[in-house]
Structure formats: structure tokens, C-alpha cells
Amino acid sequence: MKSFDEIQSQWNSQKSQVPAENGHELIIRKVNTIKKKQKLTNVILVITVIVLIFFFIYISAYNDLLVTFSLLLMIISLATRVALEMRSIKMLNNLNVSTTVENFKIRMINYYKTRVNTHLIWTPIIILLYSIGFILLLPAFKANLSSGFYNYIIVSALVMLLLLGMLIFTQIRKELAILRELKS
Question: Could you give the CA distance from residue 152 to residue 149 in angstroms, rounded to a whole number?
């Protein structure tokens, strides 16, 4: 058993962690930043879903099984992403920054794990399903559009996929960095 003096010296040799004066405000600001980005993402995704639904109705896609399947695959994949983001926003709204440090840290770790799963597992699956839906639409585009416009759609889709991929990757890195900082 250790003597009181040994325990006292170990206690005194510990680094003291002094919280930053504005630590609480900093956490709230970072959480609000994540919320704003998630809401913006949802707005963009919902607009895309609405456009796809109007496109579905406009071209009477329900008359062609492959086109129907393709567009539904694209719509469902985006709607799934919206649902994941809504779940994440709800988790973030339920974070109580005025709770104990231990409780906040546990909730932050759970939120962090959920976001990592969303980014590293669900996002690639959603992008893959959306891309499959788009690729399945290409024969219908080729049959109904001029070759110039068809080529434009393919080139612009590849450019958009590349730019979107870079944007998603950058945003994921930023969000995970913020989450790691909040977690520690």
C-alpha cells in the first residue's frame, strides 16, 4: 500500500487542466456550425429529390420499367441520405452542453461514431446506388436525346461526380476534424 506522502506527491505532479474561458461558447459554436452544414446539405438533397420526382412525372417514367426503377433508385438513395442527416441533426439537438463533462463526452462519442458510420459506410453506398440509377438511365437518354446532348450529359455527370466527390471528401474531413476536437 502506498503511503499518504507518495499519493500526495503523485497528485501534485499531475498536470492541471484548466478549461478555456470561452470553452462552453466554443463548443456551442462548433456544434452550431455542424448543424448549419447538415441543414444546408438536407436542403440541397431535398431539392434534388423534388427535381427527380418532377422529372419522373414529366417524362411519364412509370410507362417504362427500367426508367421507373432507375429514378426510384436515385430518389430512394437521396431520401435515405436525408433521413440519415435528419437523424444526425436530431442527435445533435439532443446534446446538452450544460450536462456533466462525462455525460457530454459519452454523447459526443456516440454522435461521432454515428457520423463516422454515415460518412464512411452509408455515403459511399448511397453514391453507388445513385450512380447505378443514373447509369441505368443512360440507354433511355441515348434513345431519346441527340448524340450531342447525350455526350454532354455523360461528360457533365462525370465532372459533377468528380467535383461532388471532392466536395464531399473535403466536407467529411472538416466535419470529422471538428468532431474529433469536440470529442477530446
Answer: 5
